[in-house]
């Protein structure tokens, strides 16, 4: 009897602790998504906005925004992969090779860019890649007519610069928890450093790698600012299409259909990343969020 009362009390305490977070998620996540889902099956009113209906016409019109989907599905994974290529060596140096005295300082330098607005940093890249930036320097050595701004290259540069810290930190945390005795044992047994890296360090750091890749990719799927400023309206992402549909043409049902599709894509990406991580990492815990 006492055991039952204790168990019931524990459940009540757990429910009370989880209630605020659950209410927050329901009000600010689930309810808005339900509203967007309802809008997606409606029609555009004559003056713009939403008109109640039940039709799949908005989803049938998704191919008209194929360019935005294609750019997002192509550049978002490429940007995440480039971030990974740069972030892993940096995280490895911070976690394994850096002097412990200066490690905290170096990690802080990785976070410093977040102290400045992404808008300001992106405007800085607009000048660097613009006609008075790198192209002007290249023209001095005879390389004329080099266009960097308003291209997919400029968007990728902005993506890597803006999201690189988000890739570095999960990998750093994963490497920082690495048991150094495993590396010492591998070295004592005669394994070469490269072999040790691929057989011990990299597999044990995969949870951090998958966390960084999933985090950056999911955020990039809804990116708006970087394509808008560095792409100059020529490299559209889904986020740019949503802003145009909701604020310019006021076609809320079509914008909602695109938003619902984007959410489904994010869920598929997250579940696929988790499945891949579990297959590669085996029974080790893999935290993507």
Automatic annotation (TrEMBL):
Organism of provenance: Rhizobium alvei
This protein's record includes keyword Cell membrane: yes
Keywords: Cell membrane, Membrane, Transmembrane, Transmembrane helix, Transport
Membrane association type: Multi-pass membrane protein
UniProt-listed Pfam families: BPD_transp_1
PROSITE patterns with a match to the protein in the record: ABC_TM1
Keyword Thylakoid: no
Protein's name in the database: ABC transporter permease
Segments passing through the bilayer: 12-41, 74-95, 104-128, 153-175, 196-221, 252-274
Major subcellular site: membrane
Domain of life: Bacteria
Domain ABC transmembrane type-1: 69-275
Homology family: Belongs to the binding-protein-dependent transport system permease family. CysTW subfamily.
The organism's taxonomic lineage, starting at the top: Bacteria, Pseudomonadati, Pseudomonadota, Alphaproteobacteria, Hyphomicrobiales
Localization: Cell membrane
């Amino acid at each position: 009897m006492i055991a039952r009362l204790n168990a019931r009390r524990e459940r009540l305490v757990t429910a009370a602790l989880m209630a605020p977070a659950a209410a927050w998620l329901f009000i600010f996540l689930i309810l808005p998504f339900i509203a967007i889902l309802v809008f997606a099956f409606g029609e555009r009113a004559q003056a713009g906005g939403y008109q109640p209906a039940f039709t799949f016409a908005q989803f049938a019109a998704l191919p008209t925004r194929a360019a935005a989907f294609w750019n997002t599905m192509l550049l978002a994974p490429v940007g995440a992969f480039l971030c990974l290529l740069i972030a892993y060596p940096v995280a490895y140096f911070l976690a394994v090779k850096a002097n412990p005295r200066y490690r905290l300082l170096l990690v802080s330098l990785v976070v410093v860019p977040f102290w400045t607005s992404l808008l300001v940093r992106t405007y800085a890249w607009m000048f660097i890649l613009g006609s008075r930036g790198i192209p002007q320097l290249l023209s001095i050595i005879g390389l004329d007519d080099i266009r960097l701004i308003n291209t997919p290259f400029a968007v990728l540069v902005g993506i890597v610069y803006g999201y690189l810290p988000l890739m570095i930190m999960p990998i750093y945390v994963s490497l920082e928890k690495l048991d150094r005795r495993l590396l010492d044992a591998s070295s004592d047994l005669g394994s070469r450093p490269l072999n040790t890296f691929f057989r011990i360090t990299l597999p044990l750091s995969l949870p951090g790698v998958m966390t960084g890749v999933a985090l950056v990719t999911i955020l990039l799927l809804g990116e708006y600012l970087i394509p808008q400023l560095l792409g100059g309206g020529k490299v559209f992402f889904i986020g740019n299409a949503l802003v145009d549909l909701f604020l310019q043409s006021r076609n809320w049902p079509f914008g909602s259909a695109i938003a619902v599709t984007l959410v489904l894509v994010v869920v598929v990406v997250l579940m696929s990343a988790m499945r891949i991580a579990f297959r590669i990492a085996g029974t080790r815990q893999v935290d993507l969020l």
